[in-house]
């Protein structure tokens, strides 16, 4: 099974804590749309503070919602120049390196 991934890379001026909070708010917003159970089952993302990057698995409707909401929050809060987002394309099936860390 393959998946569609979005990789976000952040400017050094953007505080990593603010990025993490925006990601978790996007997950909470997705819960409002899809329900907590479906988010727990389908959400998959990883934030790497050392690389200043985040990967969101958008192979499911929940993942696409998180990616859209996260992108909107980032753009509104930090501006379009503060980050880059790219579609990584198909990746391997879910492994231990990409999981919904911090999803409650």
Number of helices: 3
The H-and-E topology, N to C, reads as: EHHEEHE
Mean pLDDT: 89
- Computed over alpha carbons, the radius of gyration is 13 Å
3D shape: globular
Q: Distance between termini?
A: 25 Å
Uncertain segments are 93-97
What share of residues is helical?
Answer: 40-55%
Describe this structure in words.
The protein is 42% helix and 25% strand. Strands 2-3-1-4 form a four-stranded antiparallel sheet, with helices on one face. Mean pLDDT is 89; it is low at 93-97. Strand 2 and strand 3 (53-57) form a beta hairpin. The protein is α+β, with helices and mostly antiparallel strands.
Summarize the structure.
The protein is α+β, with helices and mostly antiparallel strands and 104 residues long. Helix content is 42%, strand content 25%. Helix 1 crosses helix 2 and helix 1 crosses helix 3.
Features:
104 residues, alpha+beta, four-stranded antiparallel sheet, 4 strands, 25% strand, globular
Task: Lay out the secondary structure.
Layout: E1 3-10, H1 16-34, H2 36-42, E2 45-48, E3 53-57, H3 61-78, E4 83-91
Antiparallel strand pairs: 1-3, 1-4, 2-3
